[in-house]
Amino acid sequence: MKQFIIFLRKEFAHVLRDRKTLLILFGMPITQILIFGFALTNEVKNSKIVVVDNAKDVASHKIISRIEASRYFEIEEAMLNANQIEESFQQGLIRMAVVFPANFNHDLVHQNKGQVQIIADASDPNTATTLTNYVSAIIQDYQAEMDKVNAIPYRIEPQVRMLYNPQLKGVHNFVPGVIALVLMLVCVMMTAVSIVREKETGTMEILLVSPFKPMMVMISKAIPYLILSLINVTSILLLSVFVLKVPVNGSILLLFAESTLFIITCLTLGIFISVKTNSQQVAMLISLMGMMLPTILFSGFMFPIENMPKALQIFSNIVPSKWFYIIVKSIMIKGVGFSEIWKETVILIGMTIFLLGLSLKNFKIRLA
Amino acid sequence: MKAVVVTNLSKVYGKEKTRAVHDVSFSVEKGELFGLIGPDGAGKTSIFRMLTTLLLPDNGTATVDGFDVVKDYRQIRNTVGYMPGKFSLYQDLTVEENLNFFASVFGTSIQENYHLIKDIYIQLEKFKDRRAGKLSGGMKQKLALCCALIHKPTVLFLDEPTTGVDPVSRKEFWEMLKRLKTEGITIVVSTPYMDEASMCDRIALIQMGKIMSIDTPENIVAAYPVPLYAVKADNMFLLLKNLGAYEKTIYSYAYGEYAHASFRNVSDEAEPVKFLNESGLREIEIYQTTPTIEDCFIKLLKN
What we know:
The complex is a heterodimer. By secondary structure, chain A is mostly helical. Chain A has helices at residues 2-17, 19-39, 58-69, 82-90, 104-111, 125-150, 170-201, 203-208, 214-242, 252-276, 280-298, 310-315, 320-334, 342-362; strands at residues 47-53, 73-77, 96-100, 117-120. In chain A, helix 3 (58-69) links the parallel strand 1 (47-53) and strand 2. The model of chain A has no long low-confidence stretch (mean pLDDT 84). Chain B is an alpha/beta fold. In chain B, helix 3 (95-105) runs parallel beside helix 5 and helix 4 (114-124) packs antiparallel against helix 5 (137-149). Chain B has helices at residues 44-51, 73-79, 95-105, 114-124, 137-149, 167-182, 217-222, 236-245, 270-278, 293-302; strands spanning 4-13, 18-28, 33-37, 59-64, 67-68, 81-83, 155-159, 186-191, 202-207, 210-215, 228-232, 249-255, 258-263, 285-289. In chain B, a hairpin with a 2-residue loop joins strand 12 and strand 13 (258-263). The mean pLDDT of chain B is 91.
C-alpha cells in the first residue's frame, strides 16, 4: 500500500508539473465544446432567401409576411427573372428562392389551385431539405386557414412533433458527442504516452530492476487522469447548461457515474496502447488516428450509424464512445434512468475488463 | 558462494545476428570490486542487462547471489542495485523525491540506509529541492548511485557510471566505490576508461563481445611480455611512420605526446635510436616505461 501511494504521488507530480500539457488538458474540452456548440450546428438560422412576387396580391402578401415572421429566414424581395435567380445562387448570395406567379390569388380562388415555386440550393442537401420543409409548412399553414373559411368538413392534418428536441437544436446532439470525444481524446492520449514515456526516457529500465508490480504502475498512472477528466466532465456540463442552454433532464449523479466508467474504459485503452508501443510518437499517432476518427465516425453523433453499410454498423459496436454517446444522450436529453441504459453500461464494463487483462498480459517485464 | 557467476553467456541481436556477447564466462567474489573494461560496443551493457534480468541470454547461464537470471528474476530484482549507463531517473522529480521514490519502491526508507549514502548525499543535500533534470552531469551520477544504493543491495551493477563526468568527479566517484566495498557490497562496474581499471580488484578486458583477459590489474600489467618504450621526436607523424616501418618493431602506436613501441631482439634503446636518426628524425627522446592497462589492451587487440 505504501508502495502504491508513492507511485501515485510520483504520477501526480508528473502530471501537475507539466504545465503545458495541463493547459491543453483543461483548455481543449472548453474550446471544443464551444466550437462544436456554436459553430458546428446543422440548424438553419437566418438563411438568406429571395422572394420574387409577381402576383402582389392578398394571398402572396400574407404568405410572405408569415415567412418574414419566422426567425429562420432573412428575406429580400426583388423582381428577378430566372437567370438572375440562378446567378444569385451561383454567387452564394441566397440559399432559397420563393417565386409567386402572376395571378396567384386569382388562380387560388377560382381554380382552387395556386402554385408557388420553391428553389433551394441543394449543394448542401440537409439545409435545402430543412429550408423547403419550413416554407412548405408555412404555406400549408396558410392553406389550412383558408380551408377553415371555406369550411370543408373532413380534413387530415398531420401533426408532427419532434421528440426530446422540439426545436431541433443541434447542440443537443453535439454536447453528448463532444463529451465522448473529449474524454476519449484526453484519457486515451494522455495515458497512451505515460508508460511508453518511461520506456523512452529509460526510467523503465531502473523500475524493472525493482520489486514493482505492473498492475500498480498501470493503476497509479490512470488515477491522476481520472480525476482530471472528472473535472473536465464538470466543466463541459457547466458550459452546456449555462452557455449552450442544453438541459440535463436525467440524474446528474448517474451521468457522473457513467462518465467515470467511460473514463476508466478510455484509460485502460490508453494503457494498452502504451504497453504495446515503443515510442511516444507512435503512441500519440495511434491514439489520435485510431481513436479520434472512429469516435467521430462511429459514435453516431455526426453521422447516423443506421445509414451505414452493415459491415460498418457491426464495426461501430467495438467503439466504446458509441455506447457512451447513447448513455449520455439518454440521461441528458431523454432523462431516462439506469434501467434503460444498463445494457450499454455492461458493454463498457466488459470492454474495460477485457482491455485491462490484455494490458496486464502484454506488460513487458523485460527490455526488448 | 560467489556473488556473480557467468557461464558461457551469449547474446545475439536482430535479424543480422549481431553477436553482442559471445561465450563470456567470469565470476565475481563477494565484496569484490570487479571491472568490465572495454570500448563502446564491446558488449558491456548487454552483459549488465542480462545480469540484471532485463534481457534474456540466448545461450549460457548466469547467477547473481545464487539466483538464476532467467528463472529467479524476481529475487534478483529485489536484491540488486542497478545504475544504467544512460541517466534514467525522473527528471521532473526533485533530488529528494527521486531518492524517496526508489527507497519506497523497495519497501525501505532514506533514514534506514542513510549510512550507506551519507558521504555521497551530503554533497547533494543542498540541491535536494532541485529537479533531477537540472543537475550537472557529476551530480546526476551521484544521485543515480544514491538511488541504486538506497535499498542496501547485495550486488551493485554500475554501467559506465563515469562516462561524461569530469576528471575530478570521476576520481571522487571511484573513492566512493572503494568506501562502499568496505560495507561488504559486491560491485560490478563497467568503463571505457582504461585508467580507471587500476581502481578495481579484478578486471575483465572485453572487446567485440569476447573477454580477452581476466585478472588483477597488477597481474595483467606484469604479464606484459616485452619491454615497452616511450619515444618522442621532433615530428610525431614521421616518427610513427618510421616506427611502423622498422623491421624490429613488434607494436607501435601513439600514446599521448609519446609513441609507445616494443622491439624484438633489442638489448637496449641504442639500436632503435640509431635507426630513427638515420630516418632523419631529430630531438629523439626514448626511455623504457611501465605498461599501463591500455598498453595491455592494445597488445591483446593486436594479437
